[in-house]
Amino acid sequence: SEMDFVRRLAGNIAKYDIKDVLSGDYLYMDYNSDIIEEFVNSLSIDNCVILMSSYQFNISNVTVNHTMEAYLESIYTGGGGGIFSFDKDENVFSHTKRSNTIYNESDIYIDVFDLDTYNELYRLYYGSRSVSMTAILMFRAADSASIPELQLPGPNPYFPENLQMLCNKSKEQCAADYKADGAITWPTNLTSSVDNGVILYQLDREFLTPTFMVDTIIRTVDIIDSADNNFKFMVYCNMLSSDLSMKFSKQIAAGYQVSLACDDYVMQLRFNGYSDKLDKFIFNVTKYIPNVAFSQADFNYEKRNLEKTLNASKTNVLLDQALAKLDEILINNTYSAEDLLDVGTNLSYSDFTKYNVWRGPLALDIVIVGNVDATTALSVSKSIKSNLQIAPKDLGTALHKKFASIAHMTVVYREFSSFTDSKDSLALNFYVDGFRNVERTKMLNLIQGFMQNPAFDYLRSQKNLGYMVLTEIHQVEDDIGLVIAVQGDTYTPYEIDGEIEKFLAYFGEVLTNMSTTEFQNTRDNFIKQYAQKPKTMSDKVDRYTDKIKDQSYDFNITTEATDGMHAVTQTELIDYYNKLFKHDTQKLSVQIYYRASEDAVLPTDVLSPDETYSGAGEYLVTSRQAIWALHEAD
Predict the structure, then answer these.
(1) Torsion of CA 193, 199, 202, 207, to 10 degrees
(2) What own/partner pairs with CB < 8 Å and gap ≥ 24 does 377-383 have?
(3) What burial class does residue 94 get, using C-beta atoms within 10 Å of its C-beta: 0-12 exposed, 13-18 middle, 19+ buried?
(4) Residues 6+ apart with CB under 8 A from 525
């Protein structure tokens, strides 16, 4: 942000000469290996204290238990690939295999002892012991002479040699071209007639950086149809992500980045870095990926981490849980944390090794944006497909999930909160408009822009229904709608739902009674915010890849919607408002109740027709299957 940029520059004034305040962070300092080596060699087991602190230590019986494993392992392995590993069954740290080096087996015993002292000031138990001589001798032996990973690195051959922008014109003409790049909102399609999937390219120098970015979006139907494959896919992605950051650490240190994100049935492999040599970096990474093999230790570590992440997701804030629940309820083959844990907990290494994400039919799309010419972009795309050994297939509708229609229905889904230390409840009402297109995008965003402040004022300030009020556009598969949500600990979700419906009636009057001048000013101010250009190259690439992920490939929809907003009249917006919330109602209310006692049961009362803005009574369901039964019946 602008504020972060100014803060960084203010700090740079104390670090650099005034001429280097803007560029100092990117300039290489003098490298003095003697000073660095002297500092590293001064770090010794003889002059350090090992401090271990974790919420996972068992305070109830004042004893450290085996749940300390994850904490200790994170310290000594740095996330699964370090010099030491921890065996929870033996309470032993030992040398482990890293990269291509195998260390001699020599166990390090870390005493697991009672936390036998209580501190009144900090109100905690703690314990202290001397480091065992076995551990001291081991750490003393862990020097750069015996362990290659501790040696200072040599010269990095991957630093770029050319930091020039692509432009052969005068300085003034180049500046004009860079600015013109920023006005382009639809990338060029480099796809040939024999390709499946798209190759999208844009020469974009508006950010004045000699870099470019490549997003590779890979999708497979195997994951859609199977929770088991979905879990294996996530384990594989986590292992690959950790492995890449270690394998290509020198290239990363030279300014080239690779990141891997896996969500649902999509693997997103992103590269960015200096235009000079980024194509070589991408070639090396993609050549390596299909042949990488993971050990059982790697599998055990990442599987355990995934299970912890899935379990932790069940304690996300209620709002996040409710938004995720919308997808679980309305889209087929969407797997909850419980679904994945059910099939993944007993997954063995031998079963995992039979899974190969690269074997099935894959859809492949590539986005390339930045300081790169079309020839290089096409060459990079071909090398990615060749190295990953992907023969992209047109999977057609196989990648499109089904959406549970709730047309002309107002449905309530209820469940209890998983929290025991919070009395919060939540009601989240999702009003579905329909298939996302330019017209709906334009009108729905205008409604959200007009509604946001009045909703907060009415639901939070006037009615004091809860401390969290949200109005936002939400997309579920190909359909979009508006979410209105309130979270708090005073009112029940049933009561909040009723107040949201009263707000819709109130806001309908506000919109109707608004003066022409106020309407135009509110509309135009919102358009200025909505039409903001991407601030970074990453933001721009995200806009393109989002449209690939939702399989619309409509990269210009935001621009077209913005252009159309200026002409929307007050009467048109009122008509759309009444259509969405009154005449063509499609409403799903996700209600999460605080469980007051173990024997508590979910209430069954719902809003009657005269209590809703649409005049349609609500229908209660307590399972995903019940929603789909309504869909099939409809």
Answers:
(1) 180
(2) 377/190, 377/199, 377/201, 378/190, 378/199, 378/201, 379/279, 380/214, 380/279, 380/282, 380/283, 381/190, 381/199, 383/279, 383/282, 383/283, 383/286
(3) middle
(4) none
Q: Could you report the per-residue pLDDT of 355-372, keeping only the tens digit for each?
A: 887 777 778 899 999 999
What is the CB neighbour count within 10 angstroms for residue 107? 13
Q: In what order do the strands lie in the sheet with 409-416?
A: 468-476, 479-488, 425-435, 586-593, 409-416, 619-621
Side-chain half-sphere of 423: how many Cα atoms within 13 Å?
A: 7
Distance of alpha carbon 135 from alpha carbon 412, whole angstroms: 60
In whole numbers, what is the pLDDT of the chain averaged over residues?
Answer: 82
Structure tokens at 436: 């996302």
| Percentage of the chain lying above the pLDDT 90 cut | 42
- Tokens at residue 380, please? 């990079």
List of residues 6+ apart from 205 with CB closer than 8 A = 165, 166, 167, 177, 178, 181, 370, 371
Query: Tens digits of per-residue pLDDT, 134-155?
Result: 777 777 776 666 667 667 777 8
Cβ–Cβ contacts within 10 Å for residue 81, how many? 19
Tell me how crowded residue 440 is: count the other CB atoms within 10 A of its CB. Answer: 19
Quote the pTM value: 0.76
Helix axes 557-565, 438-455, angle to 10 degrees: 60
